[in-house]
Amino acid sequence: MAEDREIVPQREMDSQSTTETKRIRNPSVDGGGPIKPMVVVIMGPTGSGKSRLAIDLGSHFPLEVINADSMQVYQGLDVLTNKVSLHEQKGVPHHLLGTVSPNVEFTAKEFRDSAIPLIDDILSRDCLPVIVGGTHYYIQALISPFLLDDTTEDMDDDCFRDIQSSIKLNCEGINDSYDHLKSIDPVAANRIHPNNQRKISQYLSLYARSGILPSELLQGKAAENWGRVDNFRYNCCFICMDVSLPVLDRYVEQRVDCMVDAGLLDEVYDIFNLNADYTRGLLQAIGVREFEAFLKDYVVEARCDTGDMGDKILKENMRAIMNSDDDRKPRILLEDTIDKVKLNTRRLIRRQRRMIIRLQKLFGWDIHFLDATESILSKSDDIWAEQVVEPAMKIIRSFLSHEASSVPGKEATNSYGMRILERELWTQYVCKACGDRVLRGAHEWEQHIQGRSHRKRMSKLKKSQG
């Protein structure tokens, strides 16, 4: 018989809240099969209220949060990455939040390897692990026993150096590693951006080690095994925050404005580096690269004239530019930069939503959707509690009483869904009008051609040809 254990509160709650006592079973044998550890996953696009829900649930369940946001794991840029402050956490323990050096690359494999012992530790304290974040690649890597990165990242240093030497020898006469990848596997090359050196190197390493084309691995083994419900490491309860796109777009745009008021300009100024590598670490965050043109055009030149007090003066000048009414170049450039941050945030939201649909439709994830649209529109705590928190509590209660499971009763993967996935992930578009800009997938292409910068370039092109 499976051994039961009782989850008891590990901290004092607000006197007006009630903490429920729930029972979960240790991983053991029940009917001849293993009982997997129980984990709650709160997912959804940026700005949808994931962290707020997790913290509010902490007043009703003894839980601890593991952050699954690929930028919030890093130290720094607290305003830009919208980290939950210690005060906002309301006593709910948070893990992997601002703990990683901003200069390193924290991969999905490293997230998985960090989160697994954390989950074990949380369970050992009779608490419920709650994974919270919009980086669904992290979540997929954590709960699935198969991870593509294992084929390269589990190698020892000598092996990796041998592979890199092999790649270097094979690349003689080829100016760019992306061209080399394209020559051996054009399908895989179409999947990634030509400037993504880390992924290019990974694909070439895979090929050098296994002799199998990366596209075959990705479309075959990964598509079959990665993220399939019957292979889960844990028994998962998936809760997805959902918000109407027009409402969420307006909300995140307002949030960017609030970030500017809260010190975003100072943060991006402090992290600015002329020789920055925007493909690694914290510099990948939306809101960093967008400021590069402004900072190069304005800050670098101005530093020469401000002496020892340069940084302080320039930060004050940036805020003054933002609040001024003139139409000079610095203000226009700064406004355009902030608009780009908003645009790229909206694009991120759409990518995250598409990823969730793939996980549900292609891999059979049993996801419970909660609509937070009305609560965001009304800004009402009562509506939030009624339409989001209470339904989430019911879902988790059912899950902990073993009435719900992450595994649905039927196979969800189908050939039609796989064709959609291949079209979205493996088709590359190039916009000649925008300097051969590379877009991955039909959705990114559609978003690009509808964007203001593309339409401006097309208008200028038509005028010049007319």
UniProtKB/TrEMBL annotation:
GO terms for biological process: cytokinin biosynthetic process; tRNA modification. Keywords: ATP-binding, Cytokinin biosynthesis, Nucleotide-binding, Transferase. Belongs to the IPP transferase family. The keyword Transferase applies. Pfam families: IPPT. GO terms for molecular function: ATP binding; tRNA dimethylallyltransferase activity. The gene is TorIPT2. It comes from the Eukaryota. InterPro entries: Dimethylallyltransferase, IPT, P-loop_NTPase. Gene3D superfamilies: 1.10.20.140, Classic Zinc Finger (3.30.160.60), P-loop containing nucleotide triphosphate hydrolases (3.40.50.300). Residues 1-32 are annotated as: Disordered. This is Isopentenyltransferase.
